[in-house]
Design goal:
This protein has four domains: about 35-45 and about 205-345, MoaB/Mog-like domain (Molybdenum Cofactor Biosythetic Enzyme, Chain A); about 50-70 and about 170-200, Molybdopterin biosynthesis moea protein, domain 2 (Alpha-Beta Complex), CATH 3.90.105; about 75-165, Molybdopterin biosynthesis moeA protein, domain 3; about 355-420, MoeA, C-terminal, domain IV (Beta-clip), CATH 2.40.340.10. The protein is about 15% helix and about 30% strand. The chain is built from seven helices and 29 strands. It has helices at about 35-45, 185-195, 230-240, 255-265, 285-290, 325-345, 395-400; strands spanning about 50-55, 65, 75-80, 80-85, 100-105, 120-125, 135-140, 145, 150-155, 165, 175, 200, 205-210, 215, 230, 245-250, 250-255, 270-275, 295-300, 300-305, 310-315, 315-320, 355-360, 365, 370-380, 380-385, 400-405, 410, 415-420. Strands 13, 16, 17, 18, 19, 21 and 22 form a seven-stranded mixed beta sheet that branches. Strands 7-4-6-5-9-8 form a six-stranded mixed beta sheet, with no helix packed on it. Helix 1 packs parallel to helix 6 (about 325-345) and helix 3 packs parallel to helix 6 (about 325-345).
């Protein structure tokens, strides 16, 4: 000992986590994918409805049946340009036996002919115009020859030929679109045709994307040193928007518990947390959810995405997605995506088109977990790319889709037809 210096105090190990803190302990058990999906189905329910105008209704989900209060059309109308006649007056007309009819006048779309079509006469009529009283058919223009104030018919038509009937498109009192239908452009046209300008639709879920990590740089920034660029938020924002959400993304949050909790408590119906979902020292999200809400599931028997979790905070659904990009994508597609679609009134099933394709080579798995295997398609065969590689996001851009291998399967031999969920949008 020299002078009055004290002996050095050795560095002490960090304090162990409290008994209910899973950090640095590993997962004691992993929930099956089926049980996790059952939890999602039990807690995700469609939101209430809101009224929107037709110009904002494309892609929205109807909250109630739409019944028509009118017939469409509400009048008999011409389906051809030609002449409104009494059909019997054309019987026997032929190129070699032209029958004369006197022109009484003309009627255009949106107008009403004030007279009545008498036997031996005709009214010039355009497509969509109301059929005049007395007429029961339209003689097409190509079947006549005009001769001053009369026409010479050289063809015949039966009664009601080329005439659109009342209610031919929509009958009053019928349900034209059912609740739960995702509105398409042609649906908006039908709604407009029956006089509907506002529709009741399921409210879009507000989804808050909470991306955590001190190592992350903003999207689009060139990586530098030991920092990496955030790849998850652009992907998650696009996925949630695809699934019908109004997306809120306030930016990257550091690995500070208070900041993460504040981000999780922001206004939304569903919270997606990316990063910090596992059992590492800086994985705060599971502990925060357990302390301030309910951590219902943490650790799932699947690859990738095994560190995923889910629960409730202030009666809102929270999904904890791993920070590794492929794991993040996989966990979103399996769990958060179905919940978001359900909240918005959409079907929970995969949103991808599917094809049954034979495998070019064997695809190996392990019994007891679900595997998410990326594949590419060459010719008429599916070629496995990867099951692991949770951080290799480019494996999903090289892939045409993925195959889900059930927990009770060891995989598939070459030539087996497998269902490939295709990444390309339908």
């Amino acid at each position: 000992m020299i002078g009055n210096s004290s002996p050095a105090v050795p560095d002490l190990p960090p304090s162990p986590p409290p008994p209910d803190d899973v950090r640095m302990r590993g997962f004691t058990r992993r929930v099956t994918v089926d049980d996790a999906l059952l939890w999602v189905a039990a807690h995700a329910r469609p939101l209430d409805s809101t009224s929107v105008s037709l110009d904002l209704a494309d892609g929205r989900v109807l909250a109630a049946d739409v019944c028509s209060t009118v017939d469409v059309p509400g009048f008999r109308r011409a389906m051809m340009d030609g002449y409104a006649i009494v059909a019997e007056d054309s019987q026997g007309a032929a190129p070699y036996n032209r029958l004369p009819l006197v022109i009484q006048g003309e009627v255009l779309p949106g107008q009403q002919f004030t007279g009545r079509v008498e036997r031996g006469s005709a009214v010039r009529i355009m497509t969509g115009a109301p059929l005049p009283d007395g007429a029961d058919a339209v003689l097409p223009a190509e079947m006549v020859e005009e001769d001053g104030q009369r026409i010479l018919a050289h063809g015949s038509v039966p009664p009601m030929k080329h005439v659109g009937q009342v209610g031919e498109d929509v009958v009053r009192g019928t349900t034209i679109l059912p609740a739960g239908r995702r509105l398409r452009p042609q649906d908006l046209g039908v709604l407009s045709s029956i006089g509907v300008g506002q529709v009741e639709v399921v409210r879009r879920p507000r989804v808050r994307i909470v991306v955590t990590g001190n190592e992350l740089l903003p999207p689009g920034t060139a990586p530098r040193g030991c920092q990496i660029t955030d790849a998850n938020s652009p992907m998650l924002v696009a996925l949630a928007a695809r699934d019908g959400a109004d997306v809120i993304h306030p930016g990257i949050i550091g690995d500070e518990p208070e900041e993460i909790l504040a981000g999780m408590r922001g206004a939304a119906e569903l919270i997606v947390v990316s990063g910090g979902s596992s059992v590492g020292r800086e994985d705060h999200a599971p502990r925060l959810l357990a302390e301030h809400g309910q951590l219902a599931i943490h650790g799932i028997a699947m690859r990738p995405s095994s560190p995923a979790g889910m629960g409730l905070l202030d009666d809102r659904l929270v999904f904890l997605l791993p920070g590794n990009p492929v794991s993040c994508l996989c966990a979103y597609d399996f769990f958060a995506g179905p919940a978001i679609r359900t909240l918005g009134g959409r079907a929970a099933e995969w949103p991808y088109p599917s094809r049954s394709i034979p495998l070019a080579r064997k695809l190996v798995s392990v019994i007891g977990r679900v595997d998410y295997a990326r594949v590419t398609i060459e010719g008429d065969q599916a070629i496995p790319l990867a099951i692991g590689g949770a951080s290799v996001l480019s494996s999903t851009t090289r892939a045409d889709g993925f195959v889900v291998i059930a927990a009770d399967s060891e995989g598939f031999p070459p030539g087996t037809h497998v269902d490939v969920q295709l990444y390309d949008r339908p």
